Amino acid sequence: MLLVPAALALVLLLAPLVALVAATPWGDLGSRVLEPAVLDALRLSLTTAAVSTVLCLLVGVPLAWVLARADLRGRSLVRALVTVPLVLPPVVGGVALLLLLGRRAPVGRQLEAWFGVGVPFTTLAVVLAQTFVALPFLVLAVEGAIGGTDERREAAAATLGASRWYVVRRVTLPAAAPGIAAGAALCFARALGEFGATLTFAGSFPGTTRTMPLAVHLALDTDPDAAVAMSLLLLVLSVAVLLVMRGRWMGGLTGARDAAPAGGRSP
Amino acid sequence: MRARCAGRAVAVAVASGLLAALAACAGPGAGAGPGTGAPVPTTTDAGPTGTVVVLAAASLTDVLATVVEDLERAHPGLEVRTSLGASSTLAAQVVAGAPADVLVTASAATMSTVTDALGCTPAVVARNTLQIAVPAGNPADVTGLADLADPDLTVALCDPSAPCGAVAAQVLMSAGVTAAPDTLEQDARATLTKVRLGEVDAALVYRTDVLAAGPDVEGLDVPAEHSVATDYLALALPDAPHPDAARAVVAHLRSPAGAAALRAAGFGTP
């Protein structure tokens, strides 16, 4: 009974991708993908997504640790707030960023007064937009991973005289490493695919703010074959991220039940 | 100006007649409009009926609302449904066989992708020109095209691959200005939005968009010697499900009433 809807779900997920591959202009795929404009967009996408992922790790892992371990009142409220950008349409995220950092916004005006340049239309705006939408993925994945590690080992390390920071660094984080890697990969993939918030907040200029998804959207109007070729490139990149995540790393996404036995590298 | 449908025997035979004046492409079975049993199209009181689908360039959004109201009042049995979008998207839909009756594009080049495939000649219904759009109060004191080259100003243009971007490139080249844009947007409305939000100091967009934006945006005219007009072309599609109604829509756009509505929205009319 369940097989029919299950098969339907699979078809819904895969049929569009099959159509994309089928429509790919294989003959001149190489020359289309090697166009300077495409390479510019690809370089920008990869660097901004990488920087966003690092930013997400720097602030997201501590937040995840707080959510998983700290004795915090209103923890579920904080967790719900972290989830908001996940369910928010990205365009709304872009509008919200503009209302905070745009030239007419108080914070944005102050920044422009200090540094002489506004945030919108810069590569920094792209990174901020990507970080905004990708951070929840990392926080939730890492929180699950940390929550799934055995707290008794941390207690044991503490009784042996380890400081709290030492315990986090040498016990908790290594045990949660697979989950953190999975979260980072998801975060990178989401940043790579970011479109709505970037278009709204950062604009679209070749080499500065026009990432791959924006280039695909633009090409769709004028050169659909180029759009298909670029889409295939993005698909391949996303599948590559999935392959990197496969195996035990996937444990980080399913509540990290098996993360603790996998990460047995305590000091 | 004269519009006719080449490459279709039926239409060529009557090309100099009524159909031509209405910029129509008669497809097979023309005249067998819904609600009329007559084999010959009629413009008498019986009038076109049914639901006619009009695909139109997004820059016509506001003026089409007026046009549709007028049309439906003039033809009580007629219901006009509009679908607005980028001209190129709409043209692609038509070529792919979307069940539409009328196509109105903001670019002759885009229309030609349809007419080349179908062998028809569309009619010019309106003209648009670019204006320099600045946020209300003109905070950066923009005075002319030369300011678009100022790297200290934040400037938005349409991407050169979009119709408004192609026109902007012509205007800038004519004025000898090498613009320093900070963003190249997908279409004219997206470009205007950046002005509306005050995120850019100046942009080149259609005069009609500036007018539609209301008090948030001010428009500075481009000097006449550098101005480039964009033609808006309308075509009653040869395979229109409702050919009578399709012709009536195009005829209305070219009528004094249609022209008045277009001019009120800032368009020029032929």
List key phrases describing it.
heterodimer; A: 267 residues; mainly alpha; MetI-like fold; 13 helices; globular; disordered C terminus; B: 270 residues; alpha/beta; D-Maltodextrin-Binding Protein, domain 2; 2 domains; 5-stranded mixed β-sheet; 10 helices; 10 strands; disordered N terminus
Short structural description:
The complex is a heterodimer of chains A (267) and B (270). With 267 residues, chain A is mainly α.
Question: Any overview of this molecule?
Answer:
The complex is a heterodimer of chains A (267) and B (270). Chain A is mainly alpha-helical and 267 residues long. Chain A has a domain at 41-210: MetI-like fold. Chain A has 13 helices and no strands. The N and C termini of chain A lie far apart (51 Å). Residues 255-267 of chain A have low confidence and may be disordered. By secondary structure, chain B is an alpha/beta fold. Chain B has 2 domains: 48-126 and 231-264, Periplasmic binding protein-like II (D-Maltodextrin-Binding Protein, domain 2, 3-Layer(aba) Sandwich); 130-226, Periplasmic binding protein-like II (D-Maltodextrin-Binding Protein, domain 2, 3-Layer(aba) Sandwich). In chain B, the strands form 2 sheets. A 5-stranded mixed beta sheet of chain B has the order 2-1-3-10-4, with helices on both faces. A 5-stranded mixed beta sheet of chain B has the order 7-6-8-5-9. Chain B starts with 8 loop residues before the first helix and ends in a 6-residue tail after the last helix. At the A-B interface, helix 11 of A face helix 4 and strand 7 of B.
